[in-house]
């Protein structure tokens, strides 16, 4: 039976990425060696790193003055690396979910943290819009896509202070204007590559402004100076990331992806709204994520939750269990998820409705 992979992360990757990476595990770039056993300073791997950085810049149309880094430590290490490098005295945070809250918590090690707004009281089921960012904040931190709660900030905000965004789960899903951001970061394991590599896009002229000493490995300038080769980079995830970037370009880049993502998520949200058994968890439609579609059983049918889960599993739907803090279901519709998988899930929901 065909499996439909709706996991939230690590999550589905393009077949192209899996196939080419598997090939490179046994024979990398015609060397007869595995990509796992060659020096990261070999000319073959240096070419991979260079091409990955160049394609990253090309696909996101990254302007001059920005650098793309591939680091270890996950998005969670960026929660502290960002304030370490950018916070002089004070930073503002928008609390839209548990990842956003974790980022905010780390900021407190480095100075004053202002939470400009929070949707925590409503279990993060909306994106706050009415807030003021203090003009003297060193930066404003947002989480564009809230993977757990299925909400997303889909436009590039302008708030008058440097904007920092965690884009772990929606990078490359839609066009963004990088010039509106000071720094963008994310773990690769949602929309780009296997776990183990973290991307950072950073505007260089914002660095070097803080007084504190920064440990070498946590200083962005170290990695800029050495082209993400100061220490051994996560070679296999970087190789896989390059494959995904090549695939993305073939798919029409982020514009092409965006169209497909609107279609996929739209199909699923339409069914959730139509089907009498289900309802979405996000309060207003404009905040609905294109990447993580969260839904629950309607109250009258609450007792059918377990049955639907089994019904869907029998039809090859994998990874649709909602995060424990939301419950119900979450279908992640990342770039690599084919439209066919969304159609299969919609049909499953329709069959289940007929059964009841
Ligand atoms: C998954 C996720 C993280 C955590 O990433 P790690 O690489 O596991 O540290 C942070 N932010 C968001 C939005 C995520 O989806």
- In helices, the fraction of residues equals 25-40%
* Sequence stretches where pLDDT stays below 50 over 5 or more residues: none
Oligomer: single chain
CATH level-3 fold name of the largest domain:
Aspartate Aminotransferase, domain 2
Mean pLDDT: 98
| C-alpha Rg (nearest Å) | 21 Å
Strand order of the largest sheet: 2-10-9-8-5-3-4
CATH top level label of the largest domain: Alpha Beta
How many helices does DSSP assign? 9
Protein structure class: alpha/beta
What is the general shape? globular
Distance between the termini: 25 Å
Count up the domains.
2
Counting DSSP E segments of at least 2 residues, the number of strands comes to: 14
The CATH superfamily of the largest domain appears as Type I PLP-dependent aspartate aminotransferase-like (Major domain)
Subunit structure: Homodimer.
Protein name: Phosphoserine aminotransferase
Cofactor: pyridoxal 5'-phosphate
Function: Catalyzes the reversible conversion of 3-phosphohydroxypyruvate to phosphoserine and of 3-hydroxy-2-oxo-4-phosphonooxybutanoate to phosphohydroxythreonine.
Account of the 3D structure:
The protein is built from 9 helices and 14 strands. By secondary structure, the chain is of the alpha/beta class. A 7-stranded mixed β-sheet has the order 2-10-9-8-5-3-4, with helices on both faces. The chain has a 3-stranded antiparallel β-sheet with strand order 11-12-14, with helices on one face. The relative contact order is 0.17. The mean pLDDT is 98. Bound molecules: pyridoxal-5'-phosphate (PLP). Residues 9, 74-76, 99, 143, 147, 166, 168-169, 187, 190 line the site of pyridoxal-5'-phosphate. Residues 5-345 form the Aminotransferase class V domain. Homodimer.
